[in-house]
Write a structure and sequence with these properties.
- This protein is an alpha/beta fold and 333 residues long.
- The chain contains five helices and 14 strands.
- Strands 10-11-9-12-13-14 form a six-stranded mixed β-sheet, sandwiched between helices. A five-stranded mixed β-sheet has the order 3-1-8-5-6, with no helix packed on it. A three-stranded mixed β-sheet has the order 4-2-7, with no helix packed on it.
- The chain has two domains: 159 residues, Spo0b-associated Gtp-binding Protein, Chain: A (Distorted Sandwich), CATH 2.70.210.12; 167 residues, 3-Layer(aba) Sandwich (Rossmann fold).
- Bound molecules: guanosine-5'-triphosphate and magnesium ion.
- The site of magnesium ion (MG) has 5 residues, from helix 1.
């Protein structure tokens, strides 16, 4: 998936159908002069329904189609025949989609499970035909109801991506490079901060045809949860990942501090993030020679003894296979 194809925020317009008019037909037949009212009911207008589609990963399709209108109910007619119901419109969205009212920003629904469906707008009720209004004193009512109007709304769709593993790290820590060697995704990689502007997804294939989805998001900096950098906008994407993989380069001045800053930003954004399973990779190990690597190992033993961690290099492929297996095990533990 390229960055242009990743869409996680769209505004669309939806409208439900009007109800059909009730008919005010009077029955006529040879030899029956006053057949009485026989106008049927109008059909209900179509509903607008959001539903989960587990095969979708982004809101990309909404870039091209922004109006969703359910059809109107048909009018009633003679012989008490009811008008056809308006067809419902189903809007397929990926798991993790929040549906919000665009004016009030109220959350209407979160699509989080495969069989989730949500009726966002109900179609208008059909009007009653005149045969309902017949009474002893009114044998031939010419009155019938109009159909109820449908409704309309501007809706915001916001996606929290659903990946098994989310990469968390400072800008330039090597997240995108890792994604590019561990999956077939081709994210942009460069030697400057905030190269990644939108999340990238890739599928990691490990032994025995097992696979899981990894998400690379823009780098997080101190203050991200308060809006610094790009992080705050993307932190929500980590909320749905089941494992967080912290990426800290081996040439970082103070690895303990970097880890704590990342954790604090996550916590300030959403305290639940801290309870997720996680693991640390120390990236770019090819930058250290044997001697420095030994020192580094002593350092992580001191600082992170009780936390699962691995030393890797995307450039030399060191530790990559081991990382895949460790993540798979952690996912299934
Ligand atoms: N030597 C070495 N350099 C690496 C390695 N992994 C990444 N780099 C370099 O580090 C720089 C940043 O890599 P990215 O993968 O773009 O980093 P990022 O964490 O995605 O950065 P942002 O998108 O800005 O958050 C690039 O110049 C990479 O070539 C590695 O294993 N070894
Ligand atoms: Mg990147």
């Amino acid at each position: 998936m390229t960055e242009e194809n990743f869409v996680d925020y769209v505004k669309i317009f939806i409208s439900s159908g009007n109800g059909g008019k009730g008919s005010s037909h009077l029955h006529r037949e040879k030899f029956i002069s006053k057949g009485g009212p026989d106008g049927g009911d109008g059909g209900r207008g179509g509903n607008v329904i959001f539903r989960a589609n587990p095969n979708l990963w982004t809101l990309y399709s909404f870039k091209f189609k922004k109006h969703y209108n359910a059809s109107h109910g048909a009018d009633g007619s003679k012989n008490r025949s009811s008008g056809a119901q308006g067809e419902d419109v189903f809007i397929d969205v990926p798991l993790g989609t929040l549906v919000k009212n665009s004016n009030t920003h109220e959350l209407l629904f979160e699509i989080s499970e495969t069989n989730n469906e949500f009726v966002a707008l109900k179609g208008g009720l059909g009007g009653k035909g005149n045969f309902h209004f017949k009474s002893p004193t009114r044998q031939t009512p010419r009155y019938s109801q109009k159909g109820e109007k449908g409704s309309e709304m501007d809706v915001i769709l916001e996606l929290k991506i659903l990946a098994d593993v989310g990469l968390v790290g400072f800008p330039n820590s090597g997240k995108s490079t890792l994604l590019s060697v561990i999956t077939s995704a081709k994210p942009k990689i460069a030697d400057y901060e905030f190269t990644t502007l939108k999340p990238n997804l890739g599928i990691v294939e490990c032994n025995n045809f097992n696979s899981f989805v990894m998400a690379d998001i823009p780098g997080i900096i101190e203050g991200a949860s308060k809006g610094r950098g790009l992080g705050h906008y993307f932190l929500r994407h980590i909320e749905r990942n089941s494992i967080l993989l912290f990426v800290i380069p081996v040439d970082t001045n103070n690895i303990k501090n970097e880890f704590n800053v990342l954790r604090k930003e996550l916590k300030d954004h959403n305290p639940e993030l801290i309870d997720k399973k996680f693991m640390i990779v120390f990236s770019k190990s090819d930058l250290l020679d044997q001697e420095l690597l030994l020192e580094f190992k002593i350092l992580i033993k001191k600082c992170f003894n009780d936390i699962p961690n691995l030393i890797i290099s995307s450039v030399s492929q060191k530790g990559i296979e081991k990382l895949k297996n460790s993540l798979w095990e952690l996912l299934n533990s």
